[in-house]
Write a structure and sequence with these properties.
- Its EC number is 2.4.2.18.
- It holds the Pfam family Glycos_trans_3N.
- There is one protein chain.
- It contains 16 helices and 9 strands.
- By secondary structure, the chain is α/β, with parallel strands linked by helices.
- The relative contact order is 0.14.
- The strands form 2 sheets. The protein has a 7-stranded mixed β-sheet, with helices on both faces. Strands 1-5 form a two-stranded parallel sheet.
Length: about 350
């Protein structure tokens, strides 16, 4: 009997008889799927049954460890590194100007890498990769090249595509689209660590459902992150609403903390939640909004970059004051330093 068959027998027997897997069993079943040893129908049954049963922390950790085991990892020479991933299936209600956030953070002193894919179902929204590709960025660079960019002080940021870091996970894209409902992979792939700092490695990740902060905080701690900012962000992203107080969470010193963030404490006053457009959200419009923000043009896109970067500076302890962190980011943008870092990563 294969690991995937044993797992299905345990987790797909209905609401009263289904049993939880051990961490090792979840790892073994997921490895068979990633290595192409499981029939697609069995892989789909496994993930859907796990979703219906609701994954335990140990099951999630086992699956995550399997994803990491097929992911190339490089260590950077930096003392700090922030890893974040907006939803891999993208945005369709707000322009994801967070594609520019790694460059802003790098200019502010926090080397940052974002990760994702060019497109992903079932949403098929606008992604970082689509925006960066339009800007001229090589979205197919490998993990070693990303590490080199992070290590260069004049750049300090990178984007890593799942197709390059975790090709076996990327190969499941078609299956995931056919499954319709999002499996646990949609959450766990955002925690994968293709780069690791020689010092502290931080995670920034968004959530939608209220059960997820505790799950994500536990996983980040067990997986080796030094801290995590878990955002109640727009469309599941890492930047909260610009208009209202949002309820977020932090993993600091191994402890989970609630974190209500008021944009006005960062000097932000907006009547919109994010970067909305009158018609369809596109990569072209997002690129336009992001470049205008990097040039210092104020508005929702500019404030989104200020808010996201200032939160990270405050969360990692580089600034004790939220307003001081935000003012520092404004100076970084207004002097052109953030745009210089962005251009260094492109060319």
């Amino acid at each position: 009997m294969t690991a995937i068959a044993d797992a299905i027998k345990k987790v797909a027997t209905g609401p009263h008889l289904s049993k939880d897997l051990t961490q090792e069993e979840a790892f073994a079943a997921t490895m068979e799927i990633l290595n192409g040893e499981a029939e697609p129908v069995r892989a789909a049954i496994f993930f859907i049954a796990m979703r219906m049963k609701r994954e335990t922390n140990e099951e999630n950790l086992g699956i995550l460890q399997a994803l990491q085991s097929v992911t190339e990892q490089q260590q950077t020479d930096t003392d700090e590194l922030l890893i974040f991933a907006d939803p891999y299936n993208g945005f369709n209600r707000h322009c994801p100007v967070t594609a520019f956030l790694p460059a802003v953070l790098a200019a502010a002193g926090v080397p940052t890498v974002s990760q994702g894919v060019f497109e992903m179902g079932p949403k098929f929204g606008v992604t970082h990769a689509q925006v960066l590709a339009l800007a001229g960025y090589d979205i197919n660079q490998n993990v070693v090249a990303a590490k080199q960019a992070i290590n260069q002080p004049e750049t300090g940021w990178a984007y890593i595509d799942q197709s390059q870091a975790s090709p076996k996970l990327f190969a499941l894209q078609a299956l995931r689209t056919q499954m319709i409902k999002r499996p646990s992979l949609a959450t766990l792939e955002k925690v994968v660590m293709p780069l690791k700092s020689k010092g502290r490695t931080h995670l920034a990740i968004g959530f939608v459902h209220k059960e997820y902060p505790a799950i994500l905080g536990w996983l980040a701690k067990e997986f080796g992150y030094d801290s995590a900012f878990i955002a109640r962000g727009l469309e599941g992203g890492i930047v909260p609403t610009l208009r209202d107080i949002s309820n977020n969470h932090q993993l600091l010193n191994g402890e989970m903390l609630t974190c209500a963030l008021d944009p006005q404490q960062f000097g932000i006053k907006q009547d919109t939640r994010g970067v909305k457009v009158d018609d369809t959200v596109t990569a072209e419009r997002t690129l336009e909004e992001g470049l205008q923000a990097l040039s210092g043009q104020t508005g929702p896109a500019y404030d989104s970059l200020v808010f996201g970067a200032a939160i990270a500076l405050w969360h990692t302890g580089l600034f004790a004051s939220q307003l001081a962190a935000a003012d520092h980011v404004r100076a970084i943008i207004n002097t052109g330093k953030a745009k210089t870092h962005f251009d260094s990563g492109i060319y």
